[in-house]
Design a protein that fits this description.
The protein has 5 helices and 35 strands. It is mostly beta strands. The strands form 5 sheets. It has a 22-stranded antiparallel beta barrel. A 5-stranded mixed sheet has the order 1-6-7-4-5. A hairpin with a 3-residue loop joins strand 8 and strand 9. The radius of gyration is 24 Å and the shape is globular.
């Protein structure tokens, strides 16, 4: 099967390349992409660079902005790998490339993250989670990451990730390929074709696939993605695009290791998983219409309009699982959900002083019957306003308010930030209040989860030093625990938690070493308690280090080095696929590390080759309880852009 997938990928890419004519000149910088073609070969109208962005001036509110060119030397499997390396985040990974992963930050829960594409929400209605890897690693121009008060007001969560679409702009055929391969039969490929079919019109189509056998029983994956974008540029200040993104994800859902019965969890042959035969296939279609307009010539007014439709169909198969057969004797269950709506966002500068951002959204949602819950339908809407203004020459203040009507319940979110900025020094304090509703699968009759988050951060640019401290108070945390009915069917139950407190410290230091050497040191430290007792939900600390050497010959670059991670003891959370929820773990780990990774990355023209040996010392470690990360294995990936 892997050979067939690889062969098909090569055939498709070769077919696309067959349409190419004449070689076009590229700028040889780190951003190898279609926008780097010489101007004579581009559209007469240059695409609006902020198309799909949540702010015309992303530097004002976006905590982190990741451009596609920033990841050329990274060896990765998916978008979540890219983001996790660049933000203060804890990544709830399911132990194998291609499996669903959820990013959290500042002590948040996995549900405290909303993913958007061009401002269109991307989430699963039944459990309210956002799978960040529904977006291909070749399907974004930049990633805007908002945290704290900005995220709370723009999304109702304290973590928001918005992808903006690629701005392809080539009069001649542009093609790009990505290929990856590693242990346990993992093979992935991504192919892309783009061309201007009219002086103002561009089309881009692509596919993405990653498949693997899995490390433990019933953990195999086969994930497909196809996508298409048609964009019309009426002027340099206005863009209209239609986007289609299709995902077909087939995964073994073993529910993680049964740590009570597994004598040696690091041994694949002796470890016992919770579900040997429970499998899931998800078909998802996301369609959106996006219009961006710069209403004046100097960026004082920016408008973003969206209409979106998403449908999700799920097939569950469990014919050889006796516990699950009690839920449905046929051994299979299909269900679906969908949502559609529209949103609007406008940013306006008032009197060359304050900037006001406001927006609203309407959404109709339908959640089909699942194994554990009956069907539900809702009409949701929200509105927000966010303003910022300078105080003197060095200070800036911002604040705003958001109202949500979701699942027939009301929530209110607000927050503000004060920033001091000089030539070399940045200091900020941020406060936010946000509310998270229980999901349909959890039961909408549960109380609302309320978050109070305070963050103080600083950046010393000349010393490449960033740090922050935070405190999060959660009232009525919607934590789940495992329960069993008389037939031993697993479901999640409320933990009867009154409050939760999380303290954290985060530091990133990248000192300038001798000549071509580079390094990065990162520390995350956490103290977490529930009902005034230490819960070990997060590791006491996570220390990461990276050392590399860069060698340049002409315009070719080689970068090689080592990186490692050490993590303190914790209990953490596990993920149970039957309830589609994270549950508290009662098994405390020891000191764990990733066994160190050695890597080499090469840039040769427009091609980037990355090679790494991961977990060199073959260590047992995990981020999500019961889902160990891979042991020692080789990982190769290649990205190559063509424009002939």
């Amino acid at each position: 099967m892997k050979f067939v997938i690889s062969t098909l990928s090569i055939i498709i890419l070769s077919s696309l390349l067959a349409f190419s004519q004449d070689e076009a000149e590229h700028k040889l910088d780190s951003e190898s992409d279609s926008l780097q073609i010489r101007h004579i070969d581009t559209l007469k109208v240059y695409p609006l660079k902020n198309h799909g962005s949540l702010s015309y001036d992303t530097s004002s509110h976006c905590n982190i902005n990741i451009k596609k060119s920033d990841v050329n030397f990274d060896n990765f499997y998916s978008v979540s790998d890219i983001i996790a390396k660049r933000i203060f985040a804890y990544n709830y990974q399911m132990g194998f490339p291609g499996q669903i992963s959820y990013l959290t930050a500042n002590g948040s829960s996995p549900r405290d993250l909303l993913v958007k594409y061009n401002g269109n929400p991307i989430f699963t209605p039944k459990n309210s989670y956002s799978d960040i890897d529904l977006i291909s690693n070749e399907f974004f121009e930049q990633i805007e990451i908002y945290q704290g008060s900005y995220a709370s007001i723009l999304s109702g969560r304290t973590n928001l990730v918005n992808f903006t679409e690629k701005r392809y702009n080539s009069a001649k055929p542009y093609t790009k390929m990505w290929y990856t391969q590693s242990g346990y039969g993992v093979i992935g490929a991504d192919g892309l074709f783009s061309q201007n079919i009219h002086p103002r019109l561009n089309i881009a189509i692509g596919f993405h696939n990653i498949a693997g056998d899995g490390r433990y029983q019933n953990s195999a994956i086969e994930n497909w993605n196809t996508r298409a974008v048609l964009r019309y540029n009426s002027s340099d200040k206005s863009s209209l695009s239609i986007t289609y993104n299709f995902n077909n994800k087939k995964q073994g859902r073993n529910g993680g290791l049964n740590l009570d019965d597994s004598q040696e969890p690091s041994n694949e042959l002796q470890a016992i998983v919770n579900y040997n035969y429970f499998k899931e296939r998800i078909f998802r279609n996301d369609i959106s219409l996006t219009y961006s307009n710069l209403l004046d010539s100097i960026g004082n007014s920016y408008l973003l309009l969206n209409a979106f439709y998403s449908t999700i169909s799920t097939e569950e198969r469990f014919k050889r699982e006796p516990k699950l057969l009690q839920l449905d004797s046929s051994g299979k269950f299909d269900h679906s959900s969908n949502y559609f709506g529209a949103n609007a966002f406008i940013e306006t500068k008032l009197f060359d002083w304050a900037t006001v951002r406001s927006g609203a959204e309407l959404m109709s949602m339908s959640v089909g019957k699942t194994l554990l819950k009956s069907s539900e339908s809702f009409f949701n809407y929200n509105a927000f306003v966010l303003a910022d203004f300078p105080i003197g020459s060095s200070f800036k203040a911002s604040g705003g308010l958001r109202y949500d009507r979701s699942y027939a319940r009301n929530t209110l979110h607000f927050g503000g930030r004060l920033t001091y900025l000089s030539t070399d020094f940045l200091l900020y304090s941020d406060f936010s209040r946000s509310q998270i509703l229980p999901s349909v699968l959890q039961g909408l009759d549960r109380n609302i989860e309320t978050h109070y988050l305070g963050i103080v951060g600083m950046e010393l640019k000349s010393h490449n030093l960033k740090s922050s401290i935070f405190y999060r108070r959660v009232i009525n945390p919607l934590l789940a625990k495992l329960s069993f009915d008389k037939n031993y069917i697993v479901y999640s139950d409320n933990c009867d938690c009154l409050n939760r407190d999380i303290f954290g410290l985060e530091i990133v230091f990248s000192p300038n070493l001798y000549k071509s050497f580079g390094t990065e040191l990162k520390l995350d430290a956490y103290y977490s308690q529930t009902n005034e007792k230490i819960d070990y939900m997060l590791p006491n600390f996570i220390v990461e280090g990276k050392l590399f050497y860069e060698y340049t010959v002409g315009k070719s670059i080689m970068r090689g080095g080592v990186e490692g991670m050490l993590m303190g003891p914790f209990k953490g959370q596990s993920f149970y696929p039957i309830t589609q929820d994270f549950i508290s773990s009662d098994k405390k780990s020891g000191l764990m590390g990733n066994g160190a990774n050695a890597f080499v990355s090469l840039r040769l023209g427009n091609a980037f080759l990355r090679i790494s040996f991961d977990n060199l010392f073959n260590q047992y470690y995990y981020y999500t309880a019961g889902y160990p990360m891979p042991d020692r294995m080789f990982h190769l990936s290649l990205t190559w852009a063509f424009n002939d």
